[in-house]
Amino acid sequence: MPPTASTFANANLDEIVEALSVDEAIALTGGQGFWHTSAIPRLGVPAIKVSDGPNGIRGNHFFRSTPAKAIPSATALGSTFDPELIGKVASKLLASEAKLRAASIVLAPTVNIQRSPLGGRSFESFSEDPHLSGTIAAAYISGLQSEGVGACIKHFVANDQEDDRQGLDSVLSPRALREIYLMPFMLAQKYANPWAYMTSYGKVNGLHVSESKFLLQGVVRNEWKSNATIMSDWWGCYEVAGPIMAGLDLEMPGTRGFRSQYQMNWSIQARKITVKAVKDRARKVLDLVQKASKGCPESIDGDGIERTNDSEEDKAVMRELAGKTIVLLKNEGQVLPLQAESLKKVAIIGGNAKATVLSGGGSAALKPSFFINPFDGIAGALTSSTEILYAEGARTVKGLPTLEYEIVNAQGGKGFDAWWHSHGPDDKPVQDPIETFQIDETNMFLSDASPKGITERWTMKLKGSMRPRSEDTLFEFGVMVAGRAKLYVDGQLVVDNWTLQRRGNSFFNTGTEEERGQFLLKKGVAHEIYLEFCNVRGPAKGDIDEIILTGGPGLKLGGAPVVDETEEIEKAVAIAKEAEVAIIVVGLNGDWETEGYDRTHLKLPGKTDELIKKVGQVNQRTIVVVQAGSAVEMPWVDDVPTIAHSWYLGNSTGDAIADVLFGKVNPSAKLSMTFPKRLEDTPSYGHFGSENGTVWYAEDLFVGYKHYTRSKVPTLFSFGHGLSYTTFTFSDLKVTNPSGPDLSFVATVKVKNTGAIKGSEVVQIYATPCLTSQLTHPVRRLAGYKKAHDISPGQCVGVEVNLDKYALSYWCISENRWKIEKGVYDIVVGAGADDVKLTAQVEVSKEVYWDGL
Hints:
InterPro entries: Cellulose_deg_GH3, Fn3-like, GH, Glyco_hydro_3_C, Glyco_hydro_3_C_sf, Glyco_hydro_3_N, Glyco_hydro_3_N_sf, Ig-like_fold. Keywords: Glycosidase, Hydrolase. The protein is α/β, with parallel strands linked by helices. Among the domains are: about 315-400 and about 565-690, Rossmann fold (3-Layer(aba) Sandwich); about 405-560, Galactose-binding domain-like (Jelly Rolls, Sandwich); about 730-850, Immunoglobulins (Immunoglobulin-like, Sandwich). The chain is built from 20 helices and 38 strands. The longest helix is centred in the middle third of the chain and has 21 residues, at about 275-295. About 55% of the residues are buried.
């Protein structure tokens, strides 16, 4: 009988640790395979499974993954300014998704700080502000863990860019480390006690975090009194001794790691590590397994099969959540909300309108169990009598769009028939396949997906046919690989990404650039599509090494009709001219914003800016909807009356956008990060990115809005900005005096709906430094917030925001402790970081020092 959760839930861990052999203790400190901890059957210790988040639960597989519910990106969740909502979503939606995947631990939330919107994974973290990040994260964690599913908060700490992420050294001051980058983790620990932490890849002030005794033992365990298990990011360990002695409990994954029996035992013999340290690390893993055994035994004791379950109730929750994350940035002339019944002709324009833009890329990417694109959502909200005109206008993709909806297999299903072949002694594929299967996707990261018994070098062959087209179409195909591939259409070689390759940054920096080729698709013909793919990297100019990509071969097939973008823009302008309303849906996708590399600019792709400007000139009721996980430049901001930022919204994207455009949802979200006018205005400009392995956090405390409010650099849209279809006023701010051990105090303010429809508004409370302080501080920082829901027209409600020592403290370098200065502090109500509405004062009668949480 395998070990069970029901038995282990009440096991005596002290006795188990005492009984562990050295080899068993070593096994517990390293993963088993990609996604599991190690079981110790002799002692009744079960294995538990972890799964990637943060905007859904993928399960075990990148390749042929289980269809999943994708919720909005973290930047979108942060924009709700609504921890209660996020907690409910985590408990009711994400926890149940984890259980459907038999996962005990979700590798989420991500609470790194957007010190630059260029960060490839900016969309995965909640905000540029540590208070907003930490409080939303705490709600996310509490929601998950209330249902017995553990949260693993990540990436601890200062993992704020992707380029050179394994080797770079983030050099930052003690104050910046404490007040900005550790703060969201600290708040999450204080209010939610996550079961696990994941260390970042890089170094902080000279030492890899996975080897930092100061951060792991000193801060997390000693100062914060956390009992969490600390694990590495995947392949985020770089030696044996350092992480063990620093307090890193679990190395993940269990493939090609440092914690093999040989290396660990050899290190013990060499006295690099001690048996006690190994058992200490094993004990923390046992802690995590026992929490999971108590919290959700069915994930451990069940059949392990991953499932999908899309209930109508869950779909409604996802749609409602997505609508509440959309930020209305501009609405001159009250173009929105639209009245569907009055519209006779609507133009829908843009490269994202019909695209499947679900989330950012990398480990956050999911296969959606369903998806509504913006075009279909908007069309569904219009009446049957409305004429809809469409033009792509300008391409927004980086790589050509995937083709899973364009290709069918021999049985008529979506995608390919596929065959896996071992290689013979001559290094050629053996004729008889080792496995035959179907693939319903054309973007495939195979990670650990190859079948048992296959040779180290292998080939996968894929065959399908294009759905017949209604007219002759010159079509462009694109192939991107980690490995090598050739694409044939009707037996003709169209794309060769095999013979000579161009190195790129796809597939977590192991892949190639996209190679393209064109083919004339004939009307009504189901052309045969055949791909041959091998997991061996091909030669490139100046690099002839052929490497077997055992850790992550990948293949992406994309394609689209060849278009003349000048003609497409002209078409878009023409239909906009005759339509009553022009809705432009543009933005980025998971190729532009992804794990593995950073953006190089903040511009929208291709000719998007030109498209928007020209459409805005011919239609005074132009609405621009931008899909992006972080900030983009908008040089056309004065050329259109209405702009909505939709982030990445998950499965219900199109319906949520339509709900806001047509007034079914009154927008109430606020920007969780500053939108700069240009990249040069950002606080980290000139020192973002690795310089010979070092990234200098030279902006120090002045991250995001703290930079703009100090330097008075004008922004495109400020942190905390967001409009409604109604209007609000703030009045009668009152603040109690700080008292008690935590210097608790309360800010109360009245919020009145002065418009014509019901709406929700966020009260944002900012604190200034002590007015007599001689130290450098931000001008103001977010200290608390509260969302007032569903205020009726004419109604005035009182809102209380609870504040405490965190609102007034700074990290005192000379004392190596938190300090609150004696004196007077301004407490500010803002409608955004740069829009002060009301001010009151509090006084602290004596200076205060404090430690811990």
